[in-house]
Design a protein that fits this description.
The chain is α/β, with parallel strands linked by helices. It has 14 helices and 16 strands. Strands 2, 3, 4, 5, 10, 14, 15 and 16 form an eight-stranded mixed β-sheet that branches. Strands 1, 6, 7, 8 and 9 form a five-stranded antiparallel β-sheet that branches. It is globular. Bound molecules: S-adenosylmethionine (SAM). S-adenosylmethionine binds next to helix 3.
Length: 370
């Protein structure tokens, strides 16, 4: 265990000893985002040498297509002279860099209108994003924020890739007498373990269709994700724009324990060495969609990442990149496309949803969701 992880474990143990067990959400918030010892604040976890590979890290084609999607949205609401291109949880900055590079080449008017805002909590990743985007600093203003509501208002296109899966969830487990919250407590040996909170009134949070789930079933909620969607939706409704959500998850609400930790591209015990592994949970797209509708927005999808990227023309773009490439580069492009759209790879598990302001988008199709 590294110094940061043992410090974080000691801190969490002390919190539990003083105040009692933590909710899974409280545990996730500190394991990922503790200002000193949290996972994202102590490392760059991406790439083949890191803990996991995200779609923008697979190949530049992903960020380029998202850039072109953004340009189509900008065109559909009348090409405003100033537009905020916001990315929540931009990781290494790869997606934004690939998008801006493609836009500079093919959509210079849009490139000139763009003002980039990045929502990021990690100082390590902010520094990396700054370096990666340095080629655009002379032409594009880039600002960083830690709270979404601090981003100045205005017409916006908002991109999120594997952002919502990092926001905290609560878990509830059905026991013989009913539903209890799952909590993180301590064993007699002071190692972390799951425990159960008191019996809850299921009417307040379990959908009617799931109330009679068998003993042992787990139901997950994420007020943090829904609040985020509401904040984004309210912004879009007040100032025009659209938001794209790309993440792994399920289209319909259901039961299942999807909390997972990954380290060095292998599954890791969620409760062992917090701060050392990435902890995520599947995104419930039905809950996000209903939060976006509560904000008054028009909702699109979700569709599979495969369908979305194919509709955006990943095949044609791959052929264009392959023309003039070396044999090795052509093989890389083919492998990357397979990874992004293959049913056994990211194509089916990852879903894409969008929501947009009703003044501009009511009953209008959006690219990728026609
Ligand atoms: C799994 S990474 C995804 C990175 C990137 N979008 C990609 O696809 O490569 C999650 C990102 O969200 C950031 N993040 C996590 N929780 C956050 C929060 N509450 N507010 C802002 N950023 C957050 C992380 O630091 C990281 O940049």
């Amino acid at each position: 265990m590294t110094g940061a992880a043992s410090n974080l474990s000691a801190y969490l143990r002390e919190r539990i000893m003083n105040k009692g067990p933590l909710t899974v959400a409280e545990y996730m918030v500190d394991a990922l985002g503790h200002p000193t010892w949290g996972y994202y604040n102590t490392r760059d976890p991406f790439g083949t040498a890191g803990d996991f590979i995200t779609a923008p890290e697979v190949h530049q084609i992903f960020g380029e297509l998202i850039g072109l999607w953004s340009a189509a949205i900008w065109q559909s609401f009348g090409k405003p002279k100033n537009i905020r291109l916001i990315e929540c949880g931009p990781g290494r900055g790869t997606l934004m860099n690939d998008a801006l590079r493609a836009l500079r080449q093919t959509m210079p008017d849009f490139y000139a209108a763009v003002h980039v805002d990045l929502l990021e909590i990690s100082p390590v990743l902010k520094a990396q994003q700054k370096a990666v985007l340095s080629g655009h600093h002379e032409s594009v203003a880039v600002h960083w924020y830690e709270n979404f509501t601090e981003i100045p208002n205005g017409p916006s296109i908002i991109i999120t890739n594997e952002f919502f899966d990092a926001l905290p969830i609560h878990q509830y487990e059905r026991l013989a007498d009913g539903w209890h919250e799952r909590l993180v407590g301590l064993t007699d040996e002071a190692t972390f373990c799951f425990q159960h909170g008191k019996l809850l009134n299921e009417d307040s949070f379990i959908p009617v269709s799931l109330r009679h789930a068998p003993v042992g079933d787990v139901f997950e909620t994420s007020p943090a994700r829904e609040t985020m969607v509401l904040e984004i939706g309210e912004r879009l409704q007040s100032a025009q724009g659209a938001c794209l959500v790309i993440d792994y998850g399920h289209v319909r609400q259901g039961v299942g324990d999807t909390l997972q930790a990954v380290q060095a591209q292998e599954y890791h015990d969620v409760l062992v060495s917090p701060g050392e592994a990435d902890i995520t949970a599947h995104v419930d797209f039905e809950a996000l969609s209903s939060a976006a509708k509560d904000a008054g927005c028009e909702v699109y999808g979700p569709v599979s990442q495969k369908l979305f990227l194919e509709r955006l023309g990943i095949g044609t773009r791959a052929e264009r990149l392959a023309a003039g490439a070396t044999a090795n580069q052509i093989q890389d492009i083919h492998q990357a496309v397979l990874r992004l759209v293959g049913d056994e790879e990211m194509g089916s598990l990852f879903k894409v949803m969008a929501f947009a302001d009703t003044a501009n988008f009511s009953n209008k199709p959006l690219p990728g969701f026609e």
